[in-house]
Amino acid sequence: MQADGAQLLHALSAQPGGPELLKLGEGRADLMLVGGAVRDLLLGRSPRELDVVVAEDAHELAGELAVSLDAQAQITAHERFGTAVLDWEGGRVDVAQRRAESYATPGALPQVRPGDVHEDLARRDFTVNAIALGLGGAQLGHVLCVEHALADLEARRLRVLHERSFQDDPTRLLRLARYRARLQFAPEPYTAELASRAIAAGALGTVTPARVGAELRLALEEADAISALEALRELGLLQALQPGLSFDAELARRALELLPADGRPDLLLLACALTPLADGAPRQAEETIYELLDRLEFTAGDRERVLRSTLAAGALAARLRKTHQPSQLHELLHPHTVEAVALAGAIGHAAGAAGEWLERLRHARLEIDGNDLLAAGVPSGPEVGARLAAALSLKLDGKLADGRQAELRAALEAAP
Ligand code: CTP
User: Fold this and answer.
1) Mean of the pLDDT values across residues 261-288?
2) Whose CA is nearest to atom 27 of ligand 1?
3) With b meaning 16 or more CB within 10 Å and e meaning fewer, what string describes 325-360?
4) Rounded to the nearest whole angstrom, what is the distance from the C-alpha of residue 349 to the centroid of ligand 1?
5) Dist. CA 305–CA 126, nearest whole Å
6) Is the pTM of this model over 0.90?
7) Distance (Å) from CA 52 to ligand 1 centroid
8) Which residue has the higher pLDDT, 107 or 368?
9) Residue 35 Cα, ligand 1 centroid: separation in angstroms?
10) How far apart are CA 114 and CA 101, in angstroms?
11) Dihedral through CA 50, CA 53, CA 57, CA 63, nearest 10?
């Protein structure tokens, strides 16, 4: 692949923040676009963010960029790595001081020192991410890259820069799966072998679970998260994360199709992967799943939602197949998360019943409420809720005429 610098600069100027970066680059040869941003522009894709490096003081450049963007921007600085992230409503720019990295122990965060652009490229994960485009001064429009980078991009290949790459930073194993899914790039054979060896040697165990969790969350948020999880499974990473973890892409597809817009696709897919763990003794399954999600630092809210969904889905699936009456469906499903119902519908091949509840029945409401019953003389307490539930059941089954009067009568006539 030929990298045409002028064409890349033109593509950059169409990105949010691109023209402002080019303006700031005037007269400074150290400002360069790097990483995924150059890769994506060369592929004709829109980068999710713009990554740039400077010789020093990333924070200052982020500040100047914020002023030139003339927008409400937020800067988050990371002193240890000399990086600053600029977020504004139009986009995001990552600014980093050029650096060289070394790893004191496998899996630890790297030790960093200022470096030149070649060292900065050499510290990266895959060749296709190790390309730089000069944004100013004598470097304007110049493309620098590590060996093989452009050929690998053309051949859609993922290649590590050296043989210790996955040992140094095992989160790159999960990145490999993400790039495979997102870019549909394949690891070249030696990289695939190095990945298998690192996984077999327990590389994942040398990284903090929080970092593994962060990468897993990125995989779950990919536009094609099903492919990302499939890639994680094929590489043996799910099994390495937790024995028994697996992923059935077909099941996941069926479940996602049922998930309504207010559901969480990422949590549903995670529940799909955890499903095999829910097969064992319920107490044991709950403990294993809880511990895994806790270790990977999912938020308490997400952890509970995934746990509840995963543990409920199997039993719900069996009952869903035998439940057809709307009021019974409602009774069965209303205590559960929408993810649990979608997963149960997929497991039990009961898309009709699950979809009916998710799309229609769960939104059904009475026009009356507890105050109407109290006003009609029902004593306050559980009886109010029970009478409302009875009226709702009749309404769901189509046994109630429309309107408040019919609902009130049904609630008052229900057996207390
Ligand atoms: N990087 C790395 N090893 C990691 C994480 C990141 O070498 N464990 C390098 C890669 O070269 C990557 C760059 O740091 O290109 C920036 O990382 P990140 O922002 O996560 O990726 P992007 O380049 O922005 O690519 P994308 O977000 O599109 O995946």
Assistant:
1) 94
2) 36
3) ebbbbbebbeebbbbbbbbbbbbbebbebbbbbbee
4) 40
5) 35
6) yes
7) 12
8) 368
9) 6
10) 9
11) -20
